[in-house]
Amino acid sequence: MRGARTFRSAGGTTVGAIFFATVLSLFAANEILKVQGQVSRLPGPGTNLVYRTDSGVTYNLKRTPASEALFVDTNLWPKHLLLAGNLLGNSFEVTGNLRSIKDGKVHELLYYCDVCSVSSSVPGLCVCCREPTVLTERPEHDN
Length: 143
Description:
By secondary structure, this protein is mainly β. The protein has helices at about 15-30, 70, and strands at about 5-10, 15, 35-40, 50-55, 60, 80-90, 90-95, 100, 105-115, 120, 135-140. The chain has a domain at about 105-140. Mean pLDDT is about 80; it is low at about 1-30.
């Protein structure tokens, strides 16, 4: 193939870039990835967020119910996060609960109502008493 990039595998076999990208896409589409990094906002109108992983890779964050807190609560942006989800091209879709890494340990991020002892994955008013919920980081326990 003229102009196609090639990669040499560990066994010395040459693999075309299209084949390599296809295999990587198929693998990523079927696997739940867990990546560490931070959220930041892209300049411009609207709420466009990117997730910069510790390895330096940047993904556009897809807005879903699981990632909604990242779009509405800027208190999460400076936190070192552990996100689980799917890779969709250059976008990342969060599919699991939000987690942070604090003092080297994994913490679950949730919004808690002290009045009703009710928790939620998104900020806002408590579904029971309508009082504001508070962002809480709870250490995750091994089961």
